[in-house]
Amino acid sequence: MPTSDERFRLLFESVPTGVLVIDEAGTIVLANRRAEGLFGFPPGELKGRPLGTLVPERFRAGHPALAASYQSARVPRPMGAGRDLFALRADGSEFPVEIGLSPLTLSGRDYTIASVVDITERRRQAEQVEVVMHELAHRSKNLLTVIQALARQTLARSTTLEDFKHAFDARLTAIAQTHNLLLEANWVGVPMARIVGEHLRPFVESGARIASDGPPVVIKPDLAQRFGLALHELATNATKYGALSNGVGRVAIEWRVERPGDHFVLSWRESGGPPPQPSGRRGFGHRLLAGMQDEGLCERVDIAFAPEGFRWTIVCTPQALVPA
């Protein structure tokens, strides 16, 4: 049968938080194994240490006043309510903590029980949530801006409500396709091959003669959305006016990075279709393709209505790619 002291020790060591018992002088008189582990001390070495030695140097000057404040009103309460608390390990590293204080009186002497919880992981998760929420707000705002611009420009080029509905729906679908690819990739980026494959799949399935080739590179989120919409416009225009409007024309899509850390180049080349007519290409799609030079990550856009077929080439900075 365990003695009362043994039962106390078993209970003391079974507590899932670090527990320190501190006397009126601010000296640690008892510490459980969990507390020793949190602070990085071997068994038995916390006992007899001043509590102030566990306070980081940058906060140590204010510790005596806080301790005196607690001693003047000894009631259970959290330590440092409303403030970020940090503790000091034996190796000199700091870690964020939550500390609960409770008064204890034994044999006429006052003690304080401090329960200590390492909240490093909790803070990391909270910071991740904050980053995600900030990114979500940023992306939502950007997406709304793009959709509003799409609506205005599509409406300006539409002669009937049906024309508007058909074109606007197709462009929203293109945005949604890239959005889904980004969700799958946790918004890190999308492989260029997947952007091409997803946005041109409906055209390929309908028998269009489209070939694509390029190295395995990953495009950053904002530019991936622009590329997706650009490919949709290129394929739509090719179907209406260009190489995909007859039975023999072809489209070649190529992308390359000359060497690691170099610029990224994406090109669309049509051949075998009717001779391109510049006046028939200056709608929303043309403005989108030409305007991508102003997107920050792209330095040059070349558009050519060559006799052999329409050409579009965009040159982007190395920052357009997610590092391998």
Mind explaining what this structure looks like?
With 324 residues, the chain is α+β, with helices and mostly antiparallel strands. It has two domains: 4-118, 2-Layer Sandwich (Beta-Lactamase); 122-320, Heat Shock Protein 90. It is 42% helix and 25% strand. The chain contains nine helices and 13 strands. The strands form three sheets. Strands 1, 2, 3, 4, 5 and 6 form a six-stranded antiparallel β-sheet that branches.
Overall pLDDT: 86
Query: In total, how many domains does the architecture comprise?
Result: 2
Sequence stretches where pLDDT stays below 50 over 5 or more residues? none
Query: In sequence order, what are the helices and strands, one letter per element?
Result: HEEHHHEEEEHHEHEEHEEHEE
First-residue to last-residue Cα separation: 64 Å
The DSSP helix count reads 9
- The total of beta strands comes to 13
What is the molecular shape? rod-shaped
Rg for CA atoms? 33 Å
Descriptive keywords:
5-stranded mixed beta sheet; 13 strands; alpha+beta; 9 helices; Beta-Lactamase; 6-stranded antiparallel beta sheet; rod-shaped; 324 residues; 42% helix; Heat Shock Protein 90
Present the secondary structure layout.
Elements: H1 4-14, E1 18-23, E2 28-31, H2 33-39, H3 57-60, H4 63-72, E3 77-78, E4 85-88, E5 94-106, E6 109-118, H5 120-157, H6 161-184, E7 190-191, H7 192-205, E8 210-213, E9 218-219, H8 221-240, E10 250-257, E11 264-271, H9 284-291, E12 298-306, E13 309-316
Parallel strand pairs: 8-10
Antiparallel strand pairs: 1-2, 1-6, 3-5, 4-5, 5-6, 7-9, 10-11, 11-13, 12-13
Helix pairs in contact: 5-6, 6-7, 6-8, 7-8, 8-9
